[in-house]
């Protein structure tokens, strides 16, 4: 934990160090003669003749048990009449964090009673030490009295619900293109909104889109404004279930079996509730744009992402996790209007689980697809169990009125790699055709990683060995077709028959990296087999980075064969700038590109790119893009034109608006869980580990991502705040629940220096080395020579202060004060400090 220390008068600073020192060992004696003799001044120095001398009050501390960090908490020291010194109080919060066996605790605190139960009495076999300089509380205890927990374990009672708040995530992309013959423009607004109240989280996702095309002849095609609804659900977690309950419109998230949209109820486990050491994904999308292009990504028929990218390779690695499976369709619309698409497979293999661990999901409701809800009622159950260290059992059941399916499989860990296999049986009914079909599907996979050689091999085989195997979506889709077109016949859709995939990645050390992949697949009701191969190699020569990518796709039904090659070079041009070029050939078309890109700004908040490209048919294009990231969002713009007189312009913005108890804050896009940071009067202070995040005028900021069920450290760098603002601490801990919105309040105060010239009723100055506290017991300042109180910890403009130089009533006094905390200048007041009558 860090604190911001401000310069004080040398005498006062030395005095404060003396009083705060916790390591006054028992065999040492405090030399009161340094202060002219305690008896002369009327000061009781006895408290400093013992180890761990601490003044009474409330402190923040990191808690350690046998050198293992347990967490952060406020701790309280109170005077113990039996020992004549301040001792640690054993509070319910401290008991919760220490997580000790019952045998270790002799006397437990009462949550409804403020009476201090001293830690030395509650845990007589323990040894406590508070290090105020490092703000640490350490407990040494026989290991037999501690509860053995997995590394990183956090008790569910410490998970934090967060605050009531609302947010709206937005992703806006405006795209305009045209030439002398036709012009078009489109607008896409992706939304992900939420409201948190108590333990419940309400979430909604959707997208708004519109387009307009206009030809030179005057014909205009205006598309309808369209809003597409995604998920809308209410969710909360339950520690007892080690999972969560979801009600509303959602996608099932089974790691095995089929996933689909549903309106209903789901109860599912959440592995993130486990300790990090006990825990076992959206994929990364890569592609190449030939010009300044619009990239759209769809899953289950729903657009989940859209962005404009410059010419050249692009990587999209910030997709929201919308489910555990469901292939992604990536569409690339070039500036000349050409559209290309490809599929990114997304079907996680069921992983191995630790022995005794259980993963489950039970969901029931009505089937949903493309924002429509059907009358077909669905019940799904999924169960995975770690039977041994080497064997995991997987099972799944799916039931509707016209469809049933069951899956059984296993994952096997062996010295020669990991195996996974499962078999699915299905029964599909088509009542309008008086037909039912029984089928099965077999699936197997194998993977191995050779750490010594840097080789990773993944082999996955899917074989639909039965012509009569149908999925739930197949069955519902066909029954829907039969209701609309009575003359339709049964085998009208392409259904997978055989699919085989293999990939290999190899690290070659100084010789670079090699990647090989291949897949082949075919369908029932369709002749021929589709085959794809890819070979990629990357390396560097001094500061020059280069890569080569070769691919081939073969469609035996049409006889079409597509061979392509892609070469790229990248050369750094100093800090954060580089030049890159590429050469690609696909069929008879050759494309060449040259570009410069980089970032600039104090925190690299600006990025840019300039590109020029041409092909062997005389086509040329030029584009430029600029982006900016700051505390309140991300903004981007691009422009392109080509030799065919096509032009395109795009503008984009993404961010969030968060409403909370301290106001409304603009933010970068927020994730599933995030934190609101508030520090009064600290505008401009930077948030540590938050990319380009600073406190706004109102002292608020948003940390866009936090990790649920883990300790998250939220830090503040106060260097850009006003000089007279003091932070009580510049780092805090939170342990958020999933979907929670944490509120992290940093206690601050204006570093207003107030000098109180204190005299007692008899006219004598208040004794030097006395300490002052406010009415809540918080430390305010120390008294130096001449009875001068240096008060630089005042949090209220008026109130009462208590000054102590001993523990007896006759060794303390109190007075009322009123000051201007907004005045950065030193203020001085002459005050009589009243003693007890």
TrEMBL record:
Q: Which GO terms describe its cellular component?
A: cell outer membrane
Alphabetical list of PROSITE patterns matching this protein = FIMBRIAL_USHER (PS01151)
In terms of superkingdom, the source organism counts as: Bacteria
Q: Which InterPro entries match?
A: Fimb_usher, Fimbrial_membr_usher_CS, FimD_plug_dom, PapC-like_C, PapC-like_C_sf, PapC_N, PapC_N_sf
Subcellular location as annotated: Cell outer membrane
Q: Where is the PapC-like C-terminal domain?
A: 755-819
Tell whether Membrane is among the UniProt keywords.
Answer: yes
**UniProt keywords, alphabetically:** Cell outer membrane, Disulfide bond, Fimbrium biogenesis, Membrane, Signal, Transmembrane, Transmembrane beta strand, Transport
GO annotation, biological process = pilus assembly
GO MF annotations in UniProt: fimbrial usher porin activity
Q: How does it sit in the membrane?
A: Multi-pass membrane protein
Keyword check for Chloroplast, yes or no: no
The signal peptide annotation in the UniProt record is 1-26
Domain (PapC N-terminal): residue spans on this chain: 29-173
Function as written in the Swiss-Prot or TrEMBL entry: Essential for piliation.
Family statement drawn from the similarity comment of this UniProt entry:
Belongs to the fimbrial export usher family.
Write the protein's name: Outer membrane usher protein HifC
Q: Which organism is it from?
A: Haemophilus sp. 15N
């Amino acid at each position: 934990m860090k604190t911001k220390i401000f310069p004080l008068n040398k005498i006062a600073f030395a005095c404060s160090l003396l009083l705060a020192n916790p390591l006054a060992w028992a065999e040492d004696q405090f030399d009161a003669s340094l202060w002219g003799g305690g008896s002369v001044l009327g000061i009781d120095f006895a408290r400093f003749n013992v180890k761990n001398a601490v003044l009474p009050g409330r402190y923040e501390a990191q808690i350690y048990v046998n050198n293992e960090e347990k967490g952060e908490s406020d701790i309280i020291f109170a005077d113990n009449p039996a020992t004549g010194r301040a001792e640690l109080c054993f509070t319910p919060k401290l008991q919760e964090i220490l997580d000790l066996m019952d045998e270790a605790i002799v006397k437990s605190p009462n949550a409804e009673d403020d009476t201090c139960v001293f830690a030395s009495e509650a845990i007589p076999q323990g040894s406590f030490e508070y290090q105020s300089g490092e703000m640490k509380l350490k407990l040494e205890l026989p290991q037999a009295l501690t509860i053995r927990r997995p590394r990183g374990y956090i008790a569910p009672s410490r998970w934090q619900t967060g605050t009531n708040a609302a947010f709206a995530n937005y992703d806006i992309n405006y795209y305009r293109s045209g030439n002398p013959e036709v012009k078009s423009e489109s607008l896409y607004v992706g939304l992900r909104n939420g409201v948190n109240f108590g333990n419940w989280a309400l979430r909604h996702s959707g997208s708004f889109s519109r387009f307009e095309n206009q030809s030179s002849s005057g014909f205009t095609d205006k598309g309808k404004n369209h809003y597409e609804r995604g998920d809308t659900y209410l969710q909360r977690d339950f520690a007892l279930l080690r999972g969560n309950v979801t009600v509303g419109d959602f996608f099932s998230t089974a790691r095995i079996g089929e996933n689909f949209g549903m309106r209903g109820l789901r109860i599912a486990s959440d592995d993130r509730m486990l300790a990090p050491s006990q825990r076992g994904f959206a994929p990364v999308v890569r592609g190449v744009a030939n010009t300044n292009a619009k990239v759209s990504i769809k899953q289950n028929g729903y657009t989940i992402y859209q962005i404009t990218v410059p010419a050249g390779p692009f990587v999209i690695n910030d997709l929201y996790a919308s489910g555990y499976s469901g292939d992604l369709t990536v569409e690339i619309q070039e500036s000349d209007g050409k559209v290309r698409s490809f599929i990114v497979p997304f079907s996680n293999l069921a992983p191995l689980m630790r022995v005794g661990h259980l993963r489950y999901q039970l969901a029931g409701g009505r089937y949903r697809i493309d924002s429509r809800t059907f009358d077909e009622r669905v019940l799904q159950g999924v169960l995975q169990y770690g039977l041994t260290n080497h064997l995991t059992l997987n099972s799944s059941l799916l039931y509707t009125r016209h469809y049933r399916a069951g899956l059984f499989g296993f994952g096997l860990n062996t010295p020669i790699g990991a195996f996974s296999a499962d078999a699915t049986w299905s029964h599909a009914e088509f009542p309008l055709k008086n037909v039912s079909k029984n089928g099965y599907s077999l699936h197997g996979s194998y993977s191995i990683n050779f750490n010594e050689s840097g080789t990773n091999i993944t082999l996955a085989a899917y074989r639909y060995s039965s012509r009569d195997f149908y999925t739930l979506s197949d069955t519902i889709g066909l029954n829907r077709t039969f209701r609309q077109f009575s003359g339709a016949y049964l085998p009208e859709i392409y259904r997978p028959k055989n699919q085989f995939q293999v990939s290999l990645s190899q690290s070659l050390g100084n010789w670079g990296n090699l990647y090989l992949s291949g897949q082949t697949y075919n369908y029932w009701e369709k002749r021929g087999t589709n085959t794809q191969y890819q070979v990629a190699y990357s390396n560097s020569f001094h500061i020059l980075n280069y890569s080569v990518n070769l691919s081939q796709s073969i469609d035996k039904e049409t006889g079409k064969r597509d061979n392509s090659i892609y070469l790229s070079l990248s050369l750094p041009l100093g800090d954060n700038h580089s030049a890159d070029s590429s050469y690609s050939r696909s069929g008879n078309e050759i494309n060449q590109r040259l570009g410069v890109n980089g970032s600039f700004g104090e925190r690299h908040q600006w990025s840019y790119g300039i590109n020029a490209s041409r092909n062997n048919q005389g086509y040329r294009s030029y584009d430029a893009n600029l982006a900016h990231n700051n505390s309140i969002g991300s903004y981007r713009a691009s422009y392109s034109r080509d030799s065919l007189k096509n032009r395109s312009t795009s503008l984009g913005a993404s961010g969030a608006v968060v409403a909370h108890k301290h106001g409304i804050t603009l933010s970068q896009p927020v994730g599933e869980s995030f934190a609101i940071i508030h520090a009064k009067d600290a505008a401009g202070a930077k948030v540590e580990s938050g990319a380009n995040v600073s406190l706004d005028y109102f002292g608020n900021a948003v940390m866009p991502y936090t990790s649920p069920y883990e300790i998250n450290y939220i830090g503040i760098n106060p260097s850009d705040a006003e000089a007279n603002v003091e932070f009580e601490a510049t780092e805090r801990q939170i342990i958020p629940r999933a979907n929670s919105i944490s509120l992290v309040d940093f206690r601050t105060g204006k570093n207003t220096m107030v000098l109180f010239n204190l005299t007692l009723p008899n006219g004598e100055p208040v004794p030097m080395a006395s300490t002052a506290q406010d009415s809540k017991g918080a430390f305010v300042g120390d008294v130096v020579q001449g009875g001068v109180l240096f008060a630089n910890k005042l949090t209220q403009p008026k109130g009462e202060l208590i000054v102590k130089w001993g523990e007896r009533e006759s060794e303390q006094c109190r007075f009322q004060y009123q000051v201007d905390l907004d005045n950065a200048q030193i203020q001085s007041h002459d005050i009589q400090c009243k003693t007890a009558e």
